Known about the structure:
Blueprint: E1 6-9, H1 11-28, E2 35-40, H2 44-54, E3 59-66, E4 79-82, E5 92-100, H3 104-114, E6 120-128, E7 141-145, E8 150-152, E9 168-171
Parallel strand pairs: 2-3, 2-5, 5-6, 6-7
Antiparallel strand pairs: 1-9, 3-4, 8-9
Helix pairs in contact: 1-2
Magnesium ion binds next to strand 5.
Amino acid sequence: MSSQPKVLITQDEIKKAVARLAAEIRRHYQGKQPLLIGILKGSFVFMADLVRELELPVEVDFVKLSSYGAGTETSGKVKVVQGLKTPIKGRDVLVVEDIVDTGLTVSFLMDYLRKKKPASLKLCVMTDKPSRHEVPVTIDYLGCTVPNKFIVGYGIDWNEKFRYLRDICFID
Ligand code: IMP
Ligand code: MG
């Protein structure tokens, strides 16, 4: 794999997508105090942009799940490595994720959170690779779809590299 990222979605396009998502979310959660749950580490940049665009009194928490390890293929087995600090029973919960590939990670997390009886549970994803889904995933708020390429930047890494890139890029 060559490690020279090429731009797929520019920072301007990202900004517009985040503003559009924030407007949708703001409308749906008017008068509520949603709890946004980011999946570490990849969601941290998207989460930071989203909460500042939302202009809602949100709270934020994070979970860390094990998935890829050091490779580029999911192991298929997902585990909670670091759980929630906030009780979610009766809360309006919005999960924030950087990228959906096979869908195994988000589908696991949504099932895990649903058992804790939140008042509502929705999913906001910055990038989705629909051609790669192995399980059905309902994305309530989607930034952009991306082709079946290895994505980096805007929080997303390849072996911990490239998270800092402002654009969403791909590597061959
Ligand atoms: P899934 O369980 O196969 O949907 O994979 C989800 C997780 O794998 C994401 O949260 C990412 O951390 C990672 N991932 C999936 N696709 C990519 C990619 O193209 N680049 C970097 N990480 C990815
Ligand atoms: Mg992730």
